[in-house]
Amino acid sequence: MSRRYSRIAEALCLAVACSFIVSQAVASTPITLGDAWGQVLQTNPSLMAGDRNVGIAEGERRQAGVIPNPELSWEVEDTRSATRTTTVQISQPIELGGKRGARIEMAERGIDSAAIGQEQLRNELRAEVVGAFQGALLAKMRQELAEQSQRLSERGVAVVDARVKAGKASALEASRARLQYEEVRLEAARARDQHINAMNQLLALIGASSTNGEPSLSGDVTDMPAIPSEVALLSRLDKVPQMRLARVEIDRQEAGIEVEKSRRIPDLTVSLGSQYSSADRERVNLVGLSMPLPLFDRNQGNVLAASRRADQARDLRNAAELRLRSEVQQAYQQWRTAQGAISGFEGGLLASADTALENTTRGFQMGKFGFIDVLDAQRTLIDVRSRYLQALGEALDAWVRLERIYGDLSAQADSY
What we know:
Signal peptide: 1-27
Number of strands: 4
Largest sheet: 4 strands, antiparallel
GO molecular function, one term: efflux transmembrane transporter activity
CATH class: Mainly Alpha
Family: Belongs to the outer membrane factor (OMF) (TC 1.B.17) family.
Number of helices: 9
Coiled coil: 174-201
Strand order of the largest sheet: 1-2-3-4
CATH superfamily: Outer membrane efflux proteins (OEP)
Helix content: 55-70%
Shape: elongated
Subcellular location: Cell outer membrane
């Protein structure tokens, strides 16, 4: 028995080990932006809930086309068996004035609205994924640059300590070096915290877990799509989901006007029945027509309200166009400004600041410069790197704002 239990234990250990290896392999697989977006498409509850809206609208469309049910009635006059009269009757309402067609038209516009609304939700979610994924890459770069600055500051402390021991520098310069190091160390700690928060935000968005360790991201924060020109973006503004949704809403409200107008015409009710008189012992067939007289209530209030809702929809469409046009223009200008700054930093400012610090540190070691010059060079490099990260962040923000409006810009590049 002990040998049997030992085999079972070995099998369990092997299964646990295999599971651990598989989980580690999955955790170590770099996640791309496409992977993150694919995960959101499969698991995001908001997107799944949005898909239900289309089914809801289709159900409303089916109900809008249903014919009213007939009504069966049974009536007894005089409860005495010898003189009672029993009536059985079936009534069928017949809709007049095009009510059914008007309801169907309005419900179909509801289906269009639900489909476009889902497309808009998908664009907004993709923008969030892009912002979270690229933001995590940016936070990682910020952490790496902060750690580089910390190492440079440590080097500066070591250099000035050596010169103090050699009697070639004052203790004040050593104090300045340590103060600079503490500032840089705190900045590095903040950068690490920001990177952790950015990764947690990304994992929460894509529905992943960090229990198996922090996953690695495959991508470059400086790799951004080619944004079309401002003229090209504005020329396609009418095709974005927000504008299409606004136009569909106008159509839906106008269909609502037709629904309310159709209700001004009363419906006709046709009745067929049979009446039996116990006193006369005779059966009489009944045929009837009934219709309300529209003397007072002609649905005039609902028609007016529907007309005002249609006017409101047109106003909201115009407001949406103005808002989106301004948003696109601001995002595009922000993109251009950020890209110009990024080009300047990558074109020489970063390298020049790094070279200046290296030369100043060497000159200080040789006694050509004071340590205040080294501190200035360090602060300049840190400032240049900080402004470079800020420019990347502004470019990312502009990219996300445009993606929220237009969707995947890289997939639409050929259509501009």
